[in-house]
TrEMBL record:
It comes from the Bacteria. The keyword rRNA-binding does not apply. InterPro entries: Methyltransf_11 (IPR013216), SAM-dependent_MTases_sf (IPR029063). It holds the Pfam family Methyltransf_11. This is Methyltransferase domain-containing protein. Keywords: Methyltransferase, Transferase. Residues 61-152 form the Methyltransferase type domain. One of its GO terms (biological process) is methylation. The keyword Transferase applies. One of its GO terms (molecular function) is S-adenosylmethionine-dependent methyltransferase activity.
C-alpha cells in the first residue's frame, strides 16, 4: 500500500515542500490538505483541539497522530505521551520532530498497555470507517483505559450536506438509516502523482456516539461544540461497570 500521507509528511519535515495533499471522496468533493497545517503549534490550533489537549491527563496515547503536533505539545508540557499511527512516514516524521515514544501499528492490533487518556483528534473516530464497527471499536478502546481513564475524540455531523437548514420539510423527511449511514465516506489521497488506496472514514453525529457509548457502559459528555457541526466528546467508564 502506497504511504502517500507519510511521504508528504516526510517531504515537508525534510524541507521538500512543493505541494499539498489532495483528497477525493464519495461525496463527490475534491479538497486540499495543506501540509503546513499538519505541523501547526498550539497557538494556531483550533479552539476545539486546544480544549482537548488541556483536558489530557496522565499517560496519553495519541491515536492517529499524523505529524505529531498534538503529541509534541503534550511532551513539551511534561506528559508521558505515545504517538501511534499506521503510516510509517508519519511515525518517522514524529521521531524526526523529537517525539520520544512512537508506535507504528494499527490501533485494532494494539493491546496490553494501559493509559489515562486516549486522544483521537482531527475527526479521530473516523478511523472506525463503518458505523457497524463502532461498538467493537469502543470496546477495544476500553481495554486500554486505566481506572478513571478517559477517551477524548472529535467528529463532525455532516447532516448539513444532506438537508437544507432553512427547509423544515427537508429536515423532517430525512431518515436515519443505520444500514446506510450518511456519515460513512470513502476517500483517496493524491500527492505528487501518487494515489493511495481508497479507505473508509466515519463522520459521526453526537447522538449516535452517545448511544454507542451507553451500549458499551461508557459515559459520553459533550465538552465543546464548534460552529460548523463539529464537537469534542469525553468518554469514560461508568462507575461500577
Amino acid at each position: 500500500m502506497e504511504d502517500v500521507f507519510g511521504k508528504a509528511l516526510l517531504d515537508y519535515q525534510n524541507g521538500n515542500y512543493s505541494e499539498d495533499i489532495y483528497t477525493y471522496s464519495s461525496l463527490d468533493e475534491e479538497d486540499v490538505m495543506p501540509l503546513p497545517y499538519l505541523f501547526r503549534d498550539f497557538k494556531t490550533m483550533p479552539l476545539l483541539e486546544q480544549r482537548a489537549l488541556a483536558l489530557c491527563k496522565g499517560k496519553v496515547l495519541d491515536i492517529g497522530c499524523g505529524a505529531g503536533s498534538h503529541s509534541l505539545h503534550l511532551q513539551q508540557k511534561g506528559y508521558n505521551v505515545t504517538a501511534l499511527d499506521t503510516s510509517a512516514g508519519a511515525i518517522e516524521t514524529c521521531k524526526l520532530r523529537g517525539i520520544k515514544n512512537t508506535l507504528h501499528t494499527d490501533i485494532s492490533a494494539f493491546e496490553g498497555e494501559k493509559f489515562d487518556t486516549l486522544l483521537l483528534l482531527m475527526n479521530g473516530i473516523g478511523i472506525v470507517g463503518n458505523l457497524k464497527l463502532l461498538n467493537n471499536f469502543l470496546d477495544h478502546l476500553k481495554s486500554f483505559l486505566k481506572p478513571g481513564g478517559q477517551i477524548l475524540l472529535d467528529s463532525s455531523d455532516i447532516i448539513y450536506m444532506f438537508i437544507d437548514d432553512e427547509d423544515s420539510k427537508s429536515q423532517e423527511s430525512f431518515e436515519f438509516d443505520p444500514e446506510n449511514y450518511y456519515g460513512e465516506v470513502t476517500f483517496t489521497m493524491k500527492y505528487k502523482g501518487k494515489e493511495s488506496n481508497s479507505f473508509r472514514w466515519l463522520y459521526l453525529d453526537f447522538d449516535t456516539l452517545q448511544r454507542a457509548a451507553n451500549d458499551n457502559n461508557l459515559t459520553c459528555d459533550l465538552v465543546f461544540k464548534g460552529d460548523h457541526y463539529n464537537y469534542l466528546a469525553r468518554l469514560a467508564s461508568k462507575i461500577g461497570k
